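Quick one: structure for this chain?
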Amino acid sequence: HYDVAPIEVDTLIFDIDDTLYPVSSGFSDHRNDAVPKFMVANLGFASEEAAEKLRTEYFKKYHSSNKGLIVAEQEGRLPEGKHFDKDDLDRYWAENLQFETYIKPNEEFLKVLGEFSAAGFKMILFSNSTRRYVMKCCDVLKLRPFFSDDRIFAVDDVLPACKPEVAAFNKVLDSVGSTAAKAVMFEDSIKNCRAAKAMGMGTVLIDEGLAGGEALLLEDTADASDPAVDCVMSHISEIREKLPCLWEMKFCNKPGPG
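Got it. Here's what it folds into:
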């Protein structure tokens, strides 16, 4: 029995950070703390405090450290004579973050991914982080067997757009030959859920009920009652319990806001 008539779906889009591992792992805070250190070491900021202030200002606007620093340079906000290359931050994250200390594979979720893959879903990973970093996360979380390289999208693949911009979502959907009406987005960001819902996607909000990670930095607090949210889970491994309809390639999509 469904309260709302389910729609047929064939595409599942998963965010990575604070979605496929819990915010309580502390990994996003670990990653975010590394950005000001990078800015002091590579961009000539006088202190981590000064770097953090500018980084937070632009991160809130653009939802990506990389896009934020690109725009900050365009607007003349970096120390004189310094150039930001997103590959440098990507390399810094990949080489300096302690991935294995913080994040672990989720065996139940990996089993679910195997079942979804066998069912014929188009499965996509879509992150506002950089590609080397994203691939390292995929390796540590053991996601690579379920997502071919051309189904893994980092911010590099959609710039100058990034989530929650419609152009970024469209680029991902177009590249796999899908449409918003056939897609479900799994996210910890309420802003990204709103953008996905406005396009016609189904939305699943991952909300552990903890203030932390990127959502705290973005002032993007999860709100399970938001009309843009179709389903809420505290952890991605609840997918079998909360969304059994997906095993029929169906999704119970609430009417969109407005």
